[in-house]
Structure formats: structure tokens, C-alpha cells
Amino acid sequence: MDRRGEASHRGRSSYRGRGWRGRGRGGGRPSPSPPSSTASPAALNPVPSLTPAVPVDDAAPIMGTCPDMCPARERAQRERLRDLAVLERVDGDPARTSLSLAVKKFCRTISSTNVLASDIRPLPVLQETMDYLLHLLDSSEHPFETIHDFIFDRTRSIRQDLSMQNIVNDQAVQIYEDAVTFHIRSHQRLSTSCQDSAASSLCYLNMEQLTKCLLSLYDMYHVLHKCDSHSKKEAEYYSFYVLLHLGCKIHKMIDSLSLWYGQLATPVRRSKEMIFARSLLRSELEP
């Protein structure tokens, strides 16, 4: 395995094995049917558990060796099929891309039992890919919806590669925190144009993935705690789940949120981020 592959599994707080499997490839809680454009974001998923997700299979995690943002095999195939996103094309040619533009697509039907290590990106490459995608978020060369669709799909692919390798460490947590940040920034941009049905659908799908990212991130936090490791941004990212309930008028969900809050670690509950989030929610609920 190359040095990148080795680096992805080093570190004091790294963890591999059967104890965690992220929700990046469709596992975890079932997705609900799309709500109306006025539905509360909190209705997308139930309150998260503070224990890690159970493994979905016993297959040994694969160790990725792909050195690029997109595997060579996929890159060649998508060039041949003219299946390149606008942001991946060289000089606008739908049949031509490059190492610096092509990013691996998310695949719904994939299993660790029939995938090649050369098609999976190790942790350092996944971080580089995430950094590249976040850089695109501020681009003004294309409509925001086009940029959002591209990053939306490619960040799911990053989470999928992490899940297939069963990597949980500080750097993997950083990648998930970056994914959450992307979905939050997208929500802010998309919500201003949610008047038409197409934009409303984008808002819903974005919020759905935001919630899934948060749930997987909380699972990872729990695993890292067992290794005596903590993210410096934990309190901030836990507070985001509280903020998702803004606009919620369902008392049962608010009660469930209160039970979840009571299980959080004391430093998180007392953090300025959590205090601020709860004060916003409380002020909204007051008659």
C-alpha cells in the first residue's frame, strides 16, 4: 500500500473495525417521504441516539489505494459515456476531463465485497477532495444550484468511501464536519429561492442529508470518546441539531429533543453554542 494509504490508518485516535458504519451509503434510519415546503426540518429524522450505529455487515473493511479524486477506471468510463458534470469538463468538452477536475460519483449500488482497492480513496485523498469541493462552493462561474448538485453528490461519495473503509478518527470527523458545513451553507442559499417546486425539492434533499451527516457525526464522536479523543467543535455541531428544530410546532418532538439534550455531556450542555441554540428555540416556543 502507498504512503497515502498507510497515513489514512495512523493516529492515536484512529479506529477501524466492526463497531461503526456510517450512514453515507443509505444505511441507518429510513428516509421519510418529502414534506411540504413549510414542513419543519426537524421532522426529517428522529432524535439521534448517543450510542454508535450497529454494523451492517461483517465484511472486513477495504483499504483504499486510489491516489486521485476520481479513480482512473471511472474517469475513463465517464469520458467514454460523456457522463461528465459541467465542473469536470476540460474546455467545456463533455467527453474530456482531467485529474484535477474529475471527482468520483456517488454510487447507490455498491458493496465492499466486489469493489477494488484502486477504486477507493484513502483518507488523505478524501480530505484533499473535500477541500477542493468546498473551494468550489464560492465559485461564481456557474449557477449555485449547479455547484450545489455537484458538491452534494461528490460529498456523498466521500462519505461512502469512508464508510467502506470503516475509518473513524480525528481526520474522518473533520471531513464529516466539513460535509455538515456544506449542507448548512447550501440551505442558507437555497432557502432564498425555495419558491418554485424544483428549489423546494433541493431544499428538502439538502436538509435530509444534513440530518444524516449529523447523526453519523454524533456516532463518530461517541466512538472517539472511547479512545479519549474529542473534537474541538463538538459543542457547535451538537447545537446544530437543536437549531434544526426551529419552526417545529410538534410538542412530542420538542419533548424528545429535551430527553436527548439531557444525555449530552455536561461540557456540551454548558457550552456557549448550546446555550445560544437553546435560547433561540426557547424564545420561539414562548407564547
TrEMBL record:
Residue span of region Disordered: 1-58
Basic residues bias spans: 10-26
SAC3/GANP/THP3 conserved domain location: 69-281
TM region(s), chain numbering: none
InterPro entries, sorted: SAC3/GANP/THP3, SAC3/GANP/THP3_conserved
Organism domain of life: Eukaryota
The protein's name in its UniProt record: SAC3/GANP/THP3 conserved domain-containing protein
Native species: Zea mays
Gene: LOC103639133
